Amino acid sequence: LSLSRKCRIRQHTTDSMTFSVVAPVLERILLTLWVGGMWTTGLILAPALFSHYPRSVAGEIAGQLFERMSYLGIACAVALLVLAALRIRRRLWRDPRAMVLVAMLAIVLIGEFGIATELRRMRESAMQEVPGSEQRVAFGRLHGLAGALFLVNAVLGLALVVAGPRPRGDQAGS
Description:
The protein is built from 4 helices and no strands. With 174 residues, it is mainly alpha-helical.
């Protein structure tokens, strides 16, 4: 082999080794940031807001927190899927962890751009209605659906944290 080809092979090996070391660390950071943020927002911040502020103020602040968590989730999911695609290439759609990430991303997108958009539109008029009115009941149901999807995502995320974002047979990277 020529010297230049040996250098290219060595550089490629070094780049692969660097990726195999950096990628899992970055995956864990992104996953922890996203999933930890979901659990913190849903279990600590939102309940604290509703226990200390009037319902309308707490709802407004909580809505903003959940919206920011959605955008963080979208960014983390896309980054995690890109890392997974780089790591396992053609096998991405066979990787159960990648499929969980795809499902989590879909839930965030549906939640933020479908349900939350509708909730924001309905909120003002629904809150001016008397309790038990059709609009308030519809708002409550949609809010319950949003909460259930958020919980599903948080549990899926926790499962990924426990299992780790990488397939068991791919710890060294490929």
